[in-house]
Amino acid sequence: MAVYRNDQVDFSFGAEIGLGGYLAPVKATADSSGDLTTTTDVITLPGARIVKVASTTNAVVGEYVQIGTTGTNGTEIRKIVAVTTNDYLTVNSPIGFYHESGEAVQTVDTTSSAGTMTGLAIDANTTHMMRFTPGVWETIEVPDPAMEIEGRYFLGPDSKRAFYTAYKGQQSFSGTLYNFELLNGYPLRFPLGTVATVGTDKGSGGASDVDGIIYAGQYEFDATDATGYGVNDYIQVGTGATAEVRKVTAVASNNIWVDYPFLFEHADEEALNEVIAPYTHTIVEAVELDSVSWQVKNRDSSETATNDWIRRSFGGKIGQATLTAEEGGTLRMSWESAPFIDMNHNQYDDSARTIVNKWDGSSLAATVEYPTTQPYYFSQGSITLFGVEFARITNFTLNINNNLEPRYFIRDDGSERTPSNIYEGRREYTMTATVVLPDSLASTSTTATMFKQLLAEGSNTGFDIDIVFTRTASTDTLTINIPADADGSSGTGGNNQGAFLRSANTSVSTDNPASTEVDILFRNMSITIVDSEPVYP
To answer: What is the secondary structure of 453-483 as a DSSP string?
Structure first.
């Protein structure tokens, strides 16, 4: 008999534009009975749970609607959980894409006996969007719901000391992805902030600028002139802190489709440019973290696709993360704490369809993109502390803690027991390392040593840390700068200091040469990656 095996699991993720708005650009056959046929009445932003429509006539709670005009921005399917006055629809999961006023909203065909969606397909010119993998991983704690169920003991002679009834309490969702090997910088930004990507000018490629505003959550837009752009080209939209690179999937006149929604809003007349590798990705802190969706798909040992189970967790934020490396190993990362607001689960049962689907239309299974790059080896790294390169660091662990807190508010959207939102607390950074003491030398007033730095207590400015990994025979680099100030140097006063040694204990043991275990506190950091990956989620 076939069994579900852990070595048959696919894990992928994608960034969300609005909290909980997982990206599944699907369309389905309209309901032949014509129950609800209307349009959006105002702009609907990613992350919204309520859709204002022109009319709620024939809208029925429990039915499924397709939101969005096929071939424009992005179509998605959601379940109606409430219909309120003034023509508002409340849906079961937040909206993923940007929708303009006047886009179609219509009931789609379902077969209630089988729980399947008919005519399900990917929307035109789109790709699987939850397709990214963080690296080489082995262990994941799936953010399955934890249920608070409490037995209540009422007075009466029949319970015999057992509880009379059990009541449901709140649900919580938390996942962990342990100790995966970094092959690119995809997972680095989620516990930190935002990413801006700048490519290398192709020179002979397309150029032009944006014709009209591009809203966050769109993946099609107009250029003033699309000449020179073709399918599979890479286009850079914008410059500076909001620059993004996307792969072109279709061009029609001056209308351009790309392979992933834009994470930033881009103004009319922002620059467009065709770019090639290498690409520079700059990750900086943000007060509010971008959210992420996780998808876990398990196929049984008989390779029967119709028995796959799929769990999609959405509205997640990376609360705590670590970067670790040690001599003889590779640079590794852990998403140690990732709370989510909700999840969907399904074991689909329609073998006739080539697209893996969920009966609520929300689980279009991604084709996971496996990176082909090499890992970052510890031996290829360089660590500089207070201006001195320490070649004899044998390991380090860098910890980021965002102190996230899921909150539960009063609402009427069919999921009152799940978190309403996840809020960021104080950000905390720490770093530990084992440093082999340098060769013996005469101590002078200018000699930089760990113990001197400890006793000096940073002289109120702290010191700088630069960690750089360079892949062999490649221009690929991964650079961590502490502090993250514009000049990359520590200063005096508030919001300007660098790193501080809290302890630097020298152990006298059988290990030689002697080493020091250091514990470091710092206030901010930034990360810059140069590689051949154009699209960062």
So the answer is: HHHHGGGGT-B-EEEEEE-TTS--EEEEEES
Pairwise pLDDT comparison (347 vs 68), residue with the higher score: 68
Buried b / exposed e over 157-176, threshold 16 CB at 10 Å, is eeeeeeeeeeeeeebbbbbe
| Cis amide prior to 483 (ω within 30 degrees) | yes
- pLDDT tens for each residue of 133-147: 999 998 999 999 999
Residues 6+ apart with CB under 8 A from 169: 147, 148, 149, 150, 417
CB within 8 A of 178, min separation 6: which ones? 137, 138, 139, 140, 141, 334, 336
CB 241 within 8 A of CB 284: yes
For the residues 32-40, what does the mean pLDDT come to? 82
CA–CA distance, 149 with 316 (Å, rounded to integer): 23
Q: Which pTM value belongs to this model? A: 0.91
CB contact set of 88 (below 8 Å; sequence gap of 6+): 50, 51, 52, 53, 56
Q: What is the pLDDT of residues 312-341, one digit of tens each?
A: 899 999 999 999 999 999 999 999 999 999
Start-to-end Cα distance in the chain: 39
Q: What is the pLDDT of residue 424?
A: 96
Assign 119 a pLDDT band (cuts: 50, 70, 90). low
Give the CA angle between residues 71, 276, 22 to the nearest 5°: 40
Q: Is 64 exposed, middle or buried (0-12, 13-18, 19+ CB in 10 A)?
A: buried
Residues with Cβ within 8 Å of residue 75, at least 6 apart in sequence: 25, 26, 27, 66, 67, 68, 69, 123
pLDDT tens column, 434-459:
888 665 555 555 666 666 777 777 67
* Count of CB atoms situated within 10 Å of the CB of 288: 12
Query: What DSSP character marks residue 174?
Result: E
Helix-, strand-, coil-residue percentages of the chain, each rounded to 5: 5, 45, 50
Nearest Cα neighbor of 335 from 447, 191, 477, 161 is: 191
